[in-house]
Specification:
The chain is built from eleven helices and eight strands. The longest helix has 22 residues. It is an alpha/beta fold. Strands 1, 2, 3, 4, 5 and 6 form a six-stranded mixed beta sheet that branches. A two-stranded antiparallel ribbon has the order 7-8. The chain has two domains: 116 residues, no CATH class; 170 residues, no CATH class.
Length: 305
């Protein structure tokens, strides 16, 4: 199953309140990271070794996002993890009941390498840092989570720059408008929601960087949202979210792009964009190569560093 398809499948039984909970040190352990708190609850029979790996994984994932956002995505939220058979992380969800929480299933046999390879936790924590939006703008939530997770993990050294741009160049064609599609607000298909939203975020990041001669990027716009009290515990409109984000960088890049993409399908020539950024596809697939003589190579480097 595609990595983006498994992210939000399955609401967890523990979401409405867990029992038989254990944590690495104590039930309901509080992890203080990035100027905030993550209240960790583990449900099920994790081994002591897996509990230790879980704490390493949480800290690594949170640190990656703190590097990007400057802080945790909310002052305090719960992380509810349920033991599941097998390997890996699945069933990621972000919600409030009323406490703000992230939930996921974790395979009891998940090892250190599999935790290192996980993207679900960072993806869900990005959702925590974005106010809840109307259903028509779910693509913006999922696009931000998809894009920021990919960039933040590379910036933190969890993945490489080559992996970052390989992931984006492989995934984004799935977000292009198909015949009969309308704008992002009006085409709630899987591809347009996740990868169409991610295309919006990449284009916005590039516009912000060009307008600021590289001094600012999408991360600074999102930092402004957090500074204004925006997180998943709040209900905002897309217009408010993008307006606050624009104000943080002194531009209207996000609002302008939203006006262009929300109602009508906007063609994006991804092949030309990759050439401009110096992202070169290897014959036969595999990780991309970089052309540092490309006119937009400085933009590519800025996004990934």
């Amino acid at each position: 199953m595609n990595r983006r398809e498994i992210c939000r499948l399955g609401l967890l039984p523990l979401m409405a309140g867990a029992s038989a909970c254990v944590a690495a040190d104590a039930p309901g352990a509080t992890l203080r990271l990035g100027g905030g708190e993550i209240v960790l609850t583990l449900s099920g029979d994790f081994s002591a070794a897996t509990r230790r790996e879980i704490q390493v994984w949480i800290k690594r994932s949170a640190d990656a996002l703190v590097r990007y956002l400057g802080r945790l995505p909310a002052p305090r939220f719960e992380l509810r993890l349920e033991a599941a058979p097998g390997h890996g992380v699945s069933g990621g969800v972000t919600d409030r009941d009323p406490a703000l929480f992230v939930g996921a299933r974790v395979g009891r046999e998940t090892d250190a390498a599999e935790f290192l390879d996980d993207w679900v936790l960072v993806h869900e924590m990005v959702h925590v840092g974005v106010p809840r939006l109307p259903r028509a703008q779910n693509w913006l939530h999922e696009g931000l989570a998809t894009y920021v997770e990919t960039v933040a993990r590379a910036r933190a050294g969890i993945t490489s720059a080559e992996q970052l741009w390989s992931e984006l160049s492989r995934g984004m064609p799935q977000g292009l408008p198909k015949p009969g599609d309308r704008g992002l607000d009006r085409t709630p298909t899987w591809g347009r929601t996740y990868w169409g939203g991610a295309i919006f975020c990449l284009l916005a990041d590039l516009r912000i960087r060009r307008a600021s001669s590289g001094r600012l990027g999408l991360q600074h716009a999102l930092q402004g949202v957090l500074a204004a009290g925006g997180n998943y515990g709040e209900d905002w409109s897309a217009v408010k979210l993008l307006g606050v984000a624009d104000a943080a960088v002194g531009q209207t890049s996000l609002s302008d792009l939203y006006a262009e993409m929300k109602d009508q399908p906007m063609p994006v020539d991804l092949d030309s964009l990759w050439r401009e950024l110096g992202v070169v596809q290897r014959p036969g697939g595999g990780a991309v190569q970089f052309d540092d003589t490309a006119p937009g190579a400085w933009l590519r480097r800025g996004i990934g560093s």
